[in-house]
Fold:
Amino acid sequence: MKNVIDIDAISDAVETTTPTGFARLGLGPAAMQAIATLGYENPTVVQERSIPILIQGRDAITQAPTGTGKTAAYGLPIVQMLDEREQKTQALVVVPTRELAIQVAAALDVLGKNRRMVTLPVYGGQAYGGQLRSLRTGVQVVVGTPGRLLDHLDRGTLILDCVRMVVLDEADEMLKMGFVEDIEKLLAALPEAHQTVLFSATMPPRIKNLAKQYLNNPEHITIAGGSAVGPDVKQVYYEVNWTDKPRALARILEFE
Ligand code: AMP
Structure:
């Protein structure tokens, strides 16, 4: 079992800013209601720096470690820009792994509940049937891995004509995994007018090149550290058979 992250360490790492609250970030009632439901009192640093830029529709390149609240940093602006009456895909979130696709889609589901935002995770290794049915009925936010997204695009089952915002999450990981061409094909299929947001824990030259090519006058946001994980996040992994994963996880949670 890889990357079993210490749960206590995660909550410590979500360092929030001084208690100014979310109110001055410019978020609307639906997003504010979602924040209240989640019990977030103050924005994390990445949220405070990114949300005001993203809700203006601007492109941004954000260097932020994992575990610093970046899902809500782009999730809340997605909730804000969503047109509830439009069933077509309006936001596309591209992530490196199926685990992240599931996790991000679940987080967006919670954030967008008040706007009845329909989110679908699509990733390789999952049967096409359910994905096809959902895509056909209309999904407002699609969260997926590059290969499977491209597959749906080629089959004509993923329509990107109405996408207004694309998020490349963990962009450095996607490049490391060799997804650069898939990402470029996805970006090329987007309508001319769209917002592009790139999140990356590190900023190697290839990420900078990607940003230079596909982002339009982006705001650069850097969250201190620049390491791959938040300063107080301890990452541990244990190797176990996959059938033992739930039991092993339960033991770790009990122990911690
Ligand atoms: P992420 O980096 O998006 O994976 O978020 C890491 C964890 O921080 C998740 O469990 C979030 O629910 C939590 N989180 C995100 N934003 C806040 C906030 N403003 N206040 C408290 N917890 C938060």
Observations:
- The pocket of adenosine monophosphate is lined by residues 10, 14, 16, 40, 43-44, 47, 67-72 (CB under 6 Å).
- Residues 1-13, 15-20 have pLDDT under 50 and may be disordered.
- Strands lie at 4-5, 60-63, 91-94, 119-122, 141-144, 165-168, 195-200, 219-222, 235-236.
- The chain has eleven helices and nine strands.
